Sequence to fold (438 residues):
Amino acid sequence: MPDKKVIGLHELYEKDPIEADKLLWGRTSDPVTRRGFLQKGALTALSLALGSNMVFANNFPAGMIPAGLAYSDQPFNLPGKRAGMVVLNDKPINAETPPHLLDDELTPNDLFFVRNNGIPPESIDVSSWTLTIEGESASQKKTYTLAELKSKFENVTYNLTLECGGNGRKEFNPPAKGNQWSTGAVGCAAWTGVRLRDVLKDVGVKSNAVYVAYYGQDTHLSGEAGKVVISRGVPVTKAMEEESLIAWAMNGKDIPVLNGYPLRLVFGGFPASCSGKWLSQVVIRDQVHDGPKMTGQSYRVPCKPVAPGTKVPDDEMCIIEEMPVKSLITFPKTGATIKQTARLPIRGKAWTSAEKIKTVEWSIDFGSSWSPCTVRVSDNRYSWQSFDANVSFPETGYYEVWVRATDSAGAAQPMLLPGWNPRGYLNNACHRIAVKVS
Ligand SMILES: Nc1nc2c(c(=O)[nH]1)N[C@H]1C(S)=C(S)[C@@H](COP(=O)(O)O)O[C@H]1N2
Ligand SMILES: [Mo]
Fold:
C-alpha cells in the first residue's frame, strides 16, 4: 500500500472547513459557522448546551449536532430547562417549547424558550452587576447596582408575553434562513422589576430622545472580546409605557441564566429581540438606534407586501414594532383520539399587542364555520389569555381543530400564512391540531 498520511477530521476542518464538510457530508457549509465552531467561544456555548464539558471537543466534526441534543428524545436537558424542549441550535443555544408544554397559566422558568444570538456570560457576580444609563439624549450618565435599582424604584410585577419575531418561520416558502422555529418561541411569565420609565426619569430624558436601546453582557460567537452580539431598542414612547420593565425575577424566582440572569428588559407586545438580556447598559438615543441586528434586514419586514422570494433592498425594509394577534392550542397534543360520543375539551393561549383578546373561535371544518371559546380575562395588557371550549364531532373520522383569535383592535389571525418576507418574521397563521374520532 502507498504510504499515505491519514489526516484527522479536525485537522481537515481546521485547514479547509468547506472541503472537509464536502467530504463528510457531500454538501457545502457556511465557512463562518464551521470555523467559528472550533473557537473557544463556540466550544463554551456547546458545553453550556450540554450542561458539561465535551471531552475531545476538538475531534467533534463541525456541522454536527451532538447526539445529546440532536434528537427530540434528548437524554440531557439544557441547564435550567426541562426535558421536552426542542433544541434548534446549540451554537448559540436556541430551544423552543412544544405547544402542549405551554398549557400552564404562566410559562414555568424551566419551559421558557431560549433565543440566544451569542454566548451567555460565564461567571455572573450579582453583587457587582451594574446598569449604566447614558446616551445622546440622557441628561447625565448614571450607574446603578442591582441593590440600588431594587430599593430606589417601585417594584412591580406584570404578566408579559415574549414572542420571537421569527416564531413560525419554519412555514415560509421559499424558506428563510435562521432558526426554524415552529410555534414555540413564545412564553408568558410574571416579570418583576422596576419600570424602565422610572429609571429613565431619574437619569433625565432630553426632549430630543427618539429611541431607547440596550447592551448586554453576552459574548459574540467569534469569542472576540468587546464585539457586540445584539443591541436593539424601542421607540421612546414604548420605553415609557407602564408595563415596560427592567426585570430581575421571573415567576418569583431568579431569571434562568439562559433567559438573561441577573437583569433584562421586558417589553410585551414587541418582538422579544427588543428585550435585552444580561442587561448592563441602556442608551437613550437622539435617533433610531443603529446597533447590531437593528439595521439592514434584521427584525425588519418589507414596508409594502412583496411576492414570495423577492429580494428587498434595505431601504424598503421597516422595523417590526407591534407583534400581531396570535393563539396556540395547548391541549390536547396534536394526534388526540376520542370516541364520537365524547366532547373534546380544548385549551390554549391567545395574545396580542393590542389592549386585549376579544374572541377566540374554533373550527373543525377548515374555517367554514366557527364557534366561540371561553376567553379568560387577563391581569394586565400584554399578558396572554387562556381560552377553552368543548368540541363535538358529527361523525367518526379525521379532523383538524383550528383556532382563531381576534383582538380588541379588530385584527384577526389569518388561516393561512400571512405575507412572505425575506427573513421569515410575523407568521401568525392559525394553529391546528389533528384529532381522530372513532
Ligand atoms: N443580550 C441579548 N439579549 C437578547 C438576545 C441575545 O441574544 N442577547 N436575544 C434576543 C432575542 S432575538 C429574543 S427572541 C429574546 C429571547 O428571550 P428568551 O431567550 O428569554 O426567550 O431575547 C432577546 N434579547
Ligand atoms: Mo428573536
In short: The chain has three domains: 4-64, 117-319, 326-437. Residues 112-118, 162, 164, 216, 218, 229-230, 259-260, 272-273, 275-278 surround MTE (ligand 1) (CB under 6 Å).
